[in-house]
Amino acid sequence: MSSDSHFGIPIIELPTNSKDLDGGSDEWRSLCKSVREACENHGCFQVVYHKISSHLQHELFSLIRQPFNLPLETKKQNVKSKPLHGYYEPGGDFLPFYESFGLEDASSCNSSKASPNLMQIHHHNHFYYQLRRVMKYSAPPSGEYTKVVSAHTDKLCSALLCEDGISGLEIETKDGEWENEYRYSLGTFAVPVKGTIIKAAKEMVDEEHPRFFQGYRFHGLRRLRKCR
């Protein structure tokens, strides 16, 4: 495992030997330290993992492109009441060049095989589940620069993005500068389950370190933000 930086964004190279990822090993502890420091100091990092071949990546994005070629009426069957969980159609002033699909419980093979109108909600034993979104960012008219999606911070537990190598994503660095990064994209997001209350862990709270913010229900906040 090695760590570097690119445009101020930490780069963490994962070991290709699976034994090095065993919990408790020196490599594992070093990796955990690098991830923790990247999250604390930058809020994000880039992962390099050489066991994923370029051929596999090409096949992945070839498959990702397919659902976007479906008829619009078929795509609209993927309807969800929860924000970010269904089909987003491009158009309007807010997201004129952005189109995406949501697939709930992304870690489930059966969920991945479900048709757009039969995606089921699964029960979960943890406080979060995986939401996968396949995203298409269309190019604006030639010679025109525009923000496809406004500057934002993801409000979920974590976000893992796999890009197709086409320049477009911009990341704000620690010093406030914006850098072009790697526009088809595959995103996997950790989403708190319904009813989860977000608050500082009790192990981190004492008389010298009281809570500054009241706990809140995650999905209630999402609905409030959507209404606004």
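Above is the first protein from milestone M3; the second protein from the same milestone is given next.
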Amino acid sequence: MSDSESSKESKKYVHNCTKCGSCCEKWSEVPIFIEDLQKWIADGTIHHVLPFLQIQETPPAYVRLILKKPAAGEEDPNPSGCPLYDYSNKICNIYSSMPLHCASYPLAYNGEKFYLVDRDSPGLGNGTMTAETLESAREIARNQFEAVSSSSAILPLLYTMIISSIMQKSQEAMASLSDEDKQQLEELLSKSKDDQEAEEEADSQEEWEDIDAEEDATVEEDTTVEEDTTVEEDATVEEDATVEEDATVEEDATVEEDTEKEE
């Protein structure tokens, strides 16, 4: 094999998922595209993903769909991972219909060339790839690129239309209320606001009480330390006095003994 052929061979993309779960365990947010939704509606997978679908809005006008866990419970063994990853059995619950983001990983396409988004993926260099499987991987990467482009253009528009429709319906509902209903609604909103302010004030008061308690505990601890220091100092003074007295007694005894000897 020539040097050029060897270089070409070394750069060949080879990737086969090892199902180790390293990617699934670290992805707390999985981007979802319109094409994913269409596929899941067609094959029935939508029922599995719907509880975890969220709209993520990034100002000024960027909107995207993601898969993300709700607030994780204390017993969740993998609170930061993909919500569709079975941590115990190390498998994706929709492996046969995984999102484009996952299916194309770690190969990506930018409209001109293919590139790796993760050179440390455990599947890189694992096994072999035929020309057909390599082309399939490239096709998925191209589809993912197109899905990003189309979803980025369509989702913000749909989101704006939905929000506008909701606001319009809300305004129409408010306009159709009687004066009595409006008064009751205002009272409910006012009460809700007062309750919220009272709750915030109570939380603030608890925080201040905790701070005061910590300060009191610190003062008590400092006082105890000072008392212990005073006791130690008193004990030291008494000990020194005792030593001095003992020394004086010994000295007096020595003087008397010397006097007796002289006599």
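Note on the second protein: The longest helix spans residues 179-262.
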